[in-house]
Write a structure and sequence with these properties.
The structure is a homodimer of 213-residue chains.
Chain A: H1 10-28, E1 33-34, H2 36-43, H3 47-55, E2 61-62, E3 66-68, H4 69-79, E4 86-91, H5 95-103, E5 111-118, E6 127-128, E7 131-135, H6 139-142, E8 149-152, H7 159-168, E9 173-176, E10 189-192, H8 195-208
Helix pairs in contact in A: 1-4, 2-3
Chain A binds a DNA duplex (30 and 30 nucleotides) through helix 1, helix 3 and strand 2.
Chain lengths: 213, 213
DNA sequence: AAATGTTTGTTAATCCATTCACATAGTAGC
DNA sequence: GCTACTATGTGAATGGATTAACAAACATTT
């Protein structure tokens, strides 16, 4: 599994889910073996990059043969720990939060939003897509100790109060849609999805493009 | 404005929206000048990176003084073309699509989702947050020629049909939530937001982290 | 107006990631 | 088993982005 000698670069980490999804699809199609060159055509990542990425997880392939699809599914599955379910809490049940609950990463049975929090009395006590919505002030009371991951979909201004509360109950991985930059504990891994920034930088590139990007 | 001699790196482009948002906030707070060192504390980007980024747009600052907040707001506003409204169409009015319409980038009056498309008869003809939902088969008929930008929030499997249709009506900038990699015209700028991948790579980092990231 | 202090813009150094290119190791056919 | 292919894994080269560090430019104070 994780090759102690080789370090896995950040860029590689961001690609693991793409690899995993692609080899899963191949497996479902009954494909048994895959060459880096062919995989490159499917996911639009250069074959040299694929080979280097794969090799940082050990020697997964065979010269003159390629990679066994089953092996890749296994290995990436282990890397992403898809065997043990990841229970996730969500803070903020506005339109975006509700959409995330309803979606609930349906393709990935190991990813489950199991509870949600809000401060709106109209929402507290209800269920969204079978997921109970609790009062955010009852966070510590309601949360189960298996939950280490949170998704934040609250207005940016509310985020500075949310993060310390989450850290206080043992959350160490946070995905947030609020662009407000925050200070968090060194043990907390945080990732931002900033929809407005994505759109604005996309438009900048489109408007100023000489060459395709 | 755009400094012809200096080229703007992709990494810089992705930061422009963050800079714009920060200097707007400073302006609203009545702040007149800002040093790169101080801005660095606010947005958590190293001051050297900020200075290098800013200098790629011309000499915006003054030695021994810093940057005028008003100048920065002006310049970044011009770069992002916030004076002329960008009309956007949305394809796919499921939970996520509806949430995006209702949000509609409210902080940015220049970004407007003005029409939406779906193939569900139950949705066609309705309005979501004041935005009309049309039949996707009427795309060419309904679209106005001012629209050059689209957001796709359809199931991944439907995306290969959606993209060529959009390109056919002159769309050249696409933001999509469907991770399915696609081939598109060289003149089309496309950006993916892949929620599952973001979450999976976040979890990988959190689980395997020795050092904070 | 001179002296002191501050902060930029940029050159050089470093770091990280991608890509090339090929020796090596294995496959497939005969 | 031997020969001709094929595709990996990786050392070396390249490219892109970040960071350090400082001369030059301006502000401020006296």
């Amino acid at each position: 599994m994780l090759n102690a000698r080789a370090r896995v670069s950040k860029a590689t980490v961001r690609r693991i889910p793409l690899y995993y999804r692609a080899v899963q699809q191949l497996q479902q199609q009954g494909v048994k073996r895959i060459r880096s060159e062919r995989l490159s055509e499917i996911i639009h990542i250069p074959s040299a990059t694929i080979r280097r990425d794969f090799s940082s997880f050990g020697e997964l392939g065979k010269s003159g043969y390629g990679y066994s699809v089953d092996t890749l599914v296994d290995e990436f599955g282990k890397l992403l720990e898809v065997q043990d379910a990841e229970n996730i809490l969500l803070v903020g049940c506005g339109g975006l939060g509700a959409a995330l609950i309803e979606n609930n990463f349906r393709r990935n049975p190991d990813l489950n939003i199991t509870m949600a929090f809000d401060i709106d009395p109209a929402k507290i006590g209800t269920e969204i897509g079978g997921v109970p919505v609790y009062d955010f002030r009852e966070l510590a009371m309601r949360v189960t100790p298996d939950i280490k991951t949170a998704i934040i979909a609250v207005p940016s201004s509310a985020q500075p109060q949310v993060i310390p509360a989450l850290e206080g109950i043992g959350i160490d991985a946070i995905l947030t849609f609020a662009p407000q930059p925050v200070v968090c504990l060194p043990t907390t891994t945080i990732r931002y999805i900033d929809l407005t920034s994505e759109l604005q930088s996309l438009l900048f590139t489109a408007h100023h493009q000489q060459l395709a990007d």
